[in-house]
Design brief:
The structure is a homotrimer. With about 300 residues, the first copy, chain A, is α/β, with parallel strands linked by helices. Chain A folds into two domains: about 15-135 and about 290-305, 3-Layer(aba) Sandwich (Rossmann fold), CATH 3.40.50; about 135-285, 3-Layer(aba) Sandwich (Rossmann fold). Chain A has helices at about 15-30, 60-70, 90-100, 115-120, 135-150, 170-180, 210-215, 225-230, 235-245, 250-255, 275, 285-305; strands at about 45-50, 75-80, 105-110, 125-130, 160, 185-190, 205, 220, 260. A five-stranded parallel sheet of chain A has the order 7-6-5-8-9, sandwiched between helices. In chain A, strands 2-1-3-4 form a four-stranded parallel sheet, with helices on both faces. In chain A, strand 3 (about 105-110), helix 4 (about 115-120) and strand 4 (about 125-130) form a beta-alpha-beta unit. In chain A, helix 2 (about 60-70) crosses helix 12. In chain A, about 50% of the residues are buried. Chains in contact: A-B, A-C, B-C. At the A-B interface, strand 2 and helix 3 of A face helix 2 and helix 12 of B.
Chain lengths: ~300, ~300, ~300
C-alpha cells in the first residue's frame, strides 16, 4: 500500500496509516545512513526541483542530501535566481519549470498556501518544506520519528510545544500529526505568543514552563526569532529566558526524565541553556539525522507512487 | 554522420544537414523526456562547465537538466564567483578552467563574440548560450523544432519575428536558421526597433502587426525589455501593446490559424495578452520542453563527436 | 599501506611516506584525467561537504571536480548560506552538518586552526583547503607534484619561494612539504614581506631576486595581493615589479633553465611578466591540472581509509 495522497502539503488530515507508513519507511532509510555506502538507486532518472523562496540552510541541505542518496537529479531554484525580477508571474515561473519535465517540487515559501497552489498549476508531486505560518510537515514527521525512536511509542504520550506558537509552522505540523498518532498535545508560552483561540485545536495551554515540564513526557522547544520578537512579543531575550528558558535546574527540579527536542538552529541561553543543549535530556542532533531519513522516506513514497 | 563543426556558436552558416540532424536527434530525446526514467548514460564521465557571465534562469536550468539527463558532470561558474575581482583576465580564467580537463563549455556572455573567442583559447567544445546581441542558437533551434513539431514542416512557411529586432540575439538565430531550412522570414516592430539595413538579411519588414499577422503562418513574439526600452525605443508600454501587442481580437480578425511562439519570460499585457498566452494559438510551454530536448541533442552530438 | 592520519590539516609533520603515497596515487589519477571517461566509482555513496567560509574559485572548482570524478555526492556550503546570521555558533552549524552523516569535510576559512578544530567536534575526515595564514596543504602537494613531474625528483633541488612570505599559507605548506622531501628551500622578497624569524624554518632568505634566480632550480612565485599590499608592504606595484618581478630578461641573464611555478590567479606585469606567464619556463597550467589529480588522490586515500 502507498500513501493516500500524491503530495505532502501538511499533516492536517493525513491519515494515521500514512504517517505510520512514512515513519516505518524512514526506519529503513535510517539504517542506510549508517552504511559506508549511504546511497540507493531508487529515484534514478527522476528530477526534483528545490524551489526555495525563503532562506534555509538545514532544511534545504537535508532535502538535497536525501535526494542525492536516492540517486535523483536535483536542481536548486532560489528567489534571487528567478525571473521574478524580469516581471514574470510566480505561476508562469512554475509552469516553465514544470515544462522542463520535473517529477517533484520541494517548496519553501514565505506565503502560506503556496504549496497547495502548486498542486493546482503543476502536475509534479509537491512537498511543502515550510509555507509561512502554515505547516512544515517533514519537520513534524521527523519530530515524531525522533520521539518514537527514543520512547518507543507516540500514543498516550504527553507532549508540550514551547515558545512562539502563533508564528510557528513547526508547532502546527506537530499538533496535527501528534494528535493523529494519539498523543496528548499541549503548548506553553507567554500569552503574546499563543493564539487566543488555541482551544479549538484541542490542546491544553500552559503559561508556566515549570508546570508544563512537570506534566509532560516531552517538550518540543521552538526557536525564538531574536531579531523579530525581542521588545515586541517579549520584553527582552533575558526575560524570556528567565520565565521560559529550558535549564538543567528546571529539569532537575520538575521532571528529570523529560525529553527535550528543538528544531534548530538553537539560541544558546535564550530558549535553551547551553548545558541542556549539550546534555543527556535532549535529542537535537538525532532529529537532524532523522530528518534526512524522513525526507528520504517521503521522497521515495511519493516518487514511486505512480508506478505501483 | 555527425555535425560538421566541433562547436555551436550560431546558426549563421550552419548547413541544412546539421540543423536537420539536431532536430531529428532532439525528437529521440523528446521521447526520453516522457519516460518515467528521463536519463541516458551517454555523457557519463564527461565534464561540462556552464560559464554564465550574464544572469539567466530558464536557459541555465534547461542546459543543466539536459546535462544531468545525459549523465554528464556539470559545474556552474558565474561572474560573481570568478577571479575577475582578483584582477585575473578572462583568458586566464578560461585557460585555468580548461586545465582542469573540461570537455565542453556552455557560455553566456554580455559581449558578442566571446564564445568564438573561447574556441581560440580552449580545446573544449563550445556552445553559445547567448552572446550580447549576436546569436542564441539553441533558442533558434528549439523554436524551429517547435514549429516543425506543430506544423509538420519549415520549408515554405511564412514566419514573422515581432518586437525589438535590433537588440535580439533570438531574432538573429531565428533568421539564419529558418532561412537555411527554407522558410520565408520577416520581421515586425516599430522603426526604432528594426535595423535600418534589415533588407540585407533578405527579410521583409512590417511596421503593421495586423498585416504581419494576416500574411504569416507563424509569429515569434519577442519579449519587450520593460526596464530598458519604455520611454526610449517606445513611448510607453501601453502604447507598444496598443500598436504591436498580440491579442485574441487581433488573431480572430486577421488570422485565426496563426501560430504564436514566445521565448519567455512573457510580459502579460505588453507584447502578448494573457488570453493569448494561455490560449490555443500558442505553444510557449512546448517550446520550454523542446528546449531541453534540443540542448540534449546538441550536447550529445558535440560531446560524442571525437569518438566517432 | 594507507596514510598515517585521518585528516589533512597541513604538511607540517606529515611523514615522507605519506607525501610519497599521495604523489604516487596522484600519478594514477593524472592518467584518468586524460581518458575520455574521466570518472571512477571509488567514492560512490560517500558524502563530502565543501565548507567554504572564504571566497575561492579555482580551489573550490578543483575540489568539486575531483569529488565528482570519484563519484562522491557533494554539497557546497558557504558562509552566506549559513545559519550564522540566525545566531548559530560555528560549532553548532558543523555538528548539524555532521549529523546529516557526511563522510568528509573540505574546509576553507579565514581563521587559522579551524580545520583542526573541526577534527575535535566532528567525526568526518577533514581536509584543509586553506586556513588563514596557516597552511594550504593540497596547494603544497600539487606544487611538489608538478616539480617532480617536470624535473623527475625533489631531493636535493634548490627551490625558492618568491613574494609575500609573511601572509602566505602556500609558502608555509611548500616549506614544510619540500623540506620533508629533501629539497633545499629558500625564500625571496622585500624585508617587509619576510618574517623576521624566518631562519627558524631552516630556509635561506634572499632580498635579491637575481641572486635567488641564479642559485635556485625552481622559483615558486606567489601572487601579490594588489588591493591589500600596494602602498603598505610595498611602495607601489610598479616598484615591486621592478625589484622582484619575474621577467624573461632576468631569466635569460640569471638562469635560463629555471623552472617557474605560480599558484594563480596571476597578476600579469606585477609579480610575473606576461611573457614569462606564457613562456616555456613556466608550468602554471600544469599545476592546475595536477591540482585536480592531487585532490582526487587525497580524497581517495582518506575516503577509503577506514575500509582498509
Amino acid at each position: 500500500m502507498g500513501l493516500s495522497s500524491n503530495h505532502l502539503l501538511g499533516l492536517k488530515g493525513v491519515p494515521k496509516e500514512d504517517i505510520q507508513l512514512i515513519l516505518d519507511t524512514a526506519t529503513t532509510f535510517r539504517e542506510v545512513l549508517e552504511r559506508p555506502i549511504k546511497k540507493v538507486p531508487t529515484l534514478q532518472g527522476k528530477t526534483i526541483v528545490n524551489l526555495f523562496y525563503e532562506n534555509s540552510t538545514r532544511t534545504r541541505l537535508s532535502f538535497e542530501l536525501a535526494q542525492k542518496r536516492l540517486s535523483a537529479d536535483t536542481i536548486n531554484f532560489t528567489k534571487s535566481g528567478s525571473s521574478a525580477a524580469k516581471g514574470e508571474s510566480f505561476k508562469d515561473t512554475v509552469r516553465n519549470i514544470e515544462a522542463m519535465k520535473v517529477d517533484m517540487i520541494v517548496c519553501r515559501h514565505e506565503s502560506a498556501g503556496i504549496p497547495k497552489y502548486l498542486t493546482q498549476i503543476s502536475k509534479a508531486k509537491i512537498i511543502n518544506a515550510g509555507d509561512g505560518r502554515h505547516e512544515h510537515p517533514t519537520q513534524g514527521l521527523l519530530d515524531m520519528y525522533s520521539i518514537r525512536e527514543k520512547v518507543g511509542k507516540l500514543e498516550g504520550l504527553n507532549i508540550c510545544i514551547v515558545g512562539d506558537i502563533s508564528h510557528s509552522r513547526v508547532a502546527l505540523s506537530n499538533i496535527y500529526g501528534l494528535q493523529t498518532m494519539g498523543a496528548n498535545v499541549s503548548v506553553c508560552g507567554p500569552s503574546t505568543m499563543i493564539p487566543w483561540d488555541m482551544e479549538k485545536f484541542g490542546v491544553k495551554v500552559y503559561n508556566n514552563i515549570d508546570k508544563a515540564m512537570a506534566e509532560n513526557d516531552v517538550l518540543n522547544v521552538l526557536r525564538i526569532q531574536l531579531e523579530r520578537d525581542a521588545g515586541v512579543l517579549i520584553p527582552s531575550v533575558r526575560e524570556y529566558h528567565n520565565y521560559f528558558g529550558i535549564t538543567q535546574e528546571r529539569i532537575d527540579k520538575n521532571n528529570p526524565n523529560v525529553l527535550i527536542l528543538h528544531p534548530g538552529p538553537i539560541n544558546r541561553g535564550v530558549e535553551i541553556s547551553s548545558e541542556v543543549a549539550d546534555g543527556s535530556s535532549q535529542i537535537i542532533l538525532n532529529q537532524v539525522t532523522n530528518g534526512v531519513a524522513i525526507r528520504m522516506a517521503v521522497l521515495y513514497l511519493l516518487g514511486t507512487k505512480s508506478e505501483e
